[in-house]
Amino acid sequence: MSRRLSSKMPKQSLHAHRKRQTDLSAWRQRTTDPEKSLQNHQSPNNQKNDSKQGSLEDALSYFQTVQDRVSLRKDSVLQKNLATVESVALQRGLPPEGFEVLLNVALSGKLADTVNTRLLKSLIPASIIPENSIVSSVSWLCVGKCSSKIQVLFLRWLITMFDFIDHKEQINALYGFFFFFLQDEKLCPYVCHVLYLLTRRENVRPFRIRRLLDLQAKMGMQPHLQALLSLYKLFHPELVTITLPGKVKAYFKNSDDPWKAAIIAVRQRNQENSPVPLPLFLGRAQHQSRKRKWNSQMVIPASSRNEIDLEVDMKKGCVALCDTTRYFPVEQLQSFSQLLQNIHCLEFPSQMGSVLTNPLLLYYMNCKKDESANLRLDYWLSQTLEEECTWCVAADNRYEEEFKEFLETIYQAECFLQEGFSSCQEFLYKSLPLWDGSSCRSQVLKLVSWISLKRLSEIKSLFYDPLAQLFFTSSLYFKCSVLESLRELLQNWLISHTIDLDTESDSQDHSWNTTLSGLVDGVAQLINFVGRISAAALLLESNSTLLLHFILSFYETVCDMYLQYNLPLLIMPPPGVFYPALLTMDPVSLNRLCYIMYRYRTNLVAAKENYQGRKKLPQFSFSSKTYKEYNQYLIAMVGCLWTSNAFEKDIHPQGLCMDEELLKKTAVKEYKKSFNIVYHPALMSYAFLFLQQAIPDNTTFDLSLIKGKKWNWYLEYLYAQGLEGLKLFVESSINRVSRVSQSK
């Protein structure tokens, strides 16, 4: 069963594999030869560590043969061997064969609790933890030789090391034994956590649900009991009929245990000292340069059978072998056709992190909609993000690059699924108030684009408010990045809505209308939020053209929500965005504003025609305020670009209307024409180039010459320069040009 067995070794019986896995003398023989092969490459540190190999073997032999209760203070041999185990464990980790020996002696009650505690705290794996060592440990729990303190410490160790155990089949067979320990109030929270990690569909039974409900009635609404009941309800909702709280911050306490930091330190030390690549903690690949917890879980664990067995099974096909009690091992999953054939009996790996990097497993999550798999993945993500966030756990950001890779992996998985993880949303809500805006900026803002519409009532206080504080106090480029992320967020919400529409029938029920109402409210909140921060940002950044580009990109999505995404909502940009775009000196921005106004008109006309053509009034319709704002902006644009009377006709409260006496004091000649298509600062360069081509002999460059027929020629010249948005706006909103276009 050892994962390090060579594929060239003859196939042996299962009994022989198990015997060799726990045979200490066999392990000594196996660990000697590889050391000799690396002698010429080892560093002085490695040679010094290897000098302790014999001492570790002696220590394990001592603990394997100890019989009577020994006093730590009076026995120097015990002190020496205990110190050896601790030293080697903290320096480079323990080999797989050492765990059964040390767990047996720690849980057998032969030694004092002080010694047992030190032994359990020294159980740091160098690679993997054999499953059979856990099975024998559970048998000692059933005997009850050790104290409750040691039992609790063992369960905490088991929870921490769960992902380092090579296989889980035999451990899952002990589900009933673990469930029995729920009656112990001290062990109950930790046993619930272990059961939460082990539970499969076949483990959910009515008598277990009744037992949990009895415990809940006795202890009250404890989070660990709610966790197990919630998981049971996902598997069999017809059996768990009680209502459970939908919002729980954390089911299990994320306490600081003595092993996590040691695992990281051991792994890092082994990587630095090893002249050859070390195998993954839980993978089959032979290269690893990362040190953090999540990276050791990104590879599907090896099978409980050797490679020859796997190859034979793959040739035969495992579809026929799958029944109600057998699962298809994910390490054999190689193609999409295999996924389709075995989707009914596929079992997810214990290392849920490996799902993020496996497209086939992501396909499974997307197609099967397995709530238990989603729950397990969300739980793992929430724990890992909370433990490893570089700006939350410590000021030391040595692992920031690796954390960036982890966040990038999560984002890629969300893009694949076209859906965000709820645990990532909770992480963003908790960490944004603590974020400095620079650490992992790109990755965090990418995750922002997949926030869901859940908890809409809290999104302002948990998301918009902390993001606004960062937005206003950060650089121009950060503001642009945030706006782009919010545009992608809006687009993801709208795309999700169109997908939901495709899956719904024509007859929409009350629940669907409620969902649509929630979407409309959420989208309106987002658009209004972006409008407020955009207007303020333009003031702070002196109407930056780069910033205006990202703002207009956002409103290019907003202006087409009705026709392109079938969402009954349109919101006009605030005056603090519209007028800076109208008076900009950048022709690209002005052209985009013209296109946005054209699309607003198209959507509003379509909505009005749809409203008038229905016999039954629709539940959602545009307010008269939207039409009024559009008309005000339209008057301002036509007054500026065409009729040259914006200062007189603009009726918007924050518009361009000014007193004539004030305008005369500016000493600007023909101030009324200052923003038409000839004199507009964004288009004046085109006007000069047009005059140079139309009247080459004229050296005065008098712009007043552009009138009459030359005005129409000038329009065609502007259209030829790629100002398509200006063309669409003029031809759709100005009657004179519309008639000319129609006559042509």
Description of the structure:
The chain has 744 residues and is mainly α. Among the domains are: 52-239; 330-419, no CATH class; 677-743, no CATH class. The protein has 37 helices and no strands. It has helices spanning 14-22, 24-37, 44-50, 53-65, 76-92, 97-107, 113-121, 131-143, 148-160, 169-173, 175-180, 188-198, 206-219, 223-235, 260-273, 307-316, 336-342, 359-368, 371-388, 390-393, 400-417, 422-431, 441-448, 459-472, 476-503, 510-540, 545-558, 561-565, 575-582, 587-613, 624-643, 646-649, 660-664, 684-694, 709-720, 724-733, 735-743. The radius of gyration is 35 Å and the shape is elongated. The chain starts with 13 loop residues before the first helix and ends with a helix. The model is unreliable at 1-51, 275-294, 301-325, 505-512 and 737-744 (pLDDT under 50).
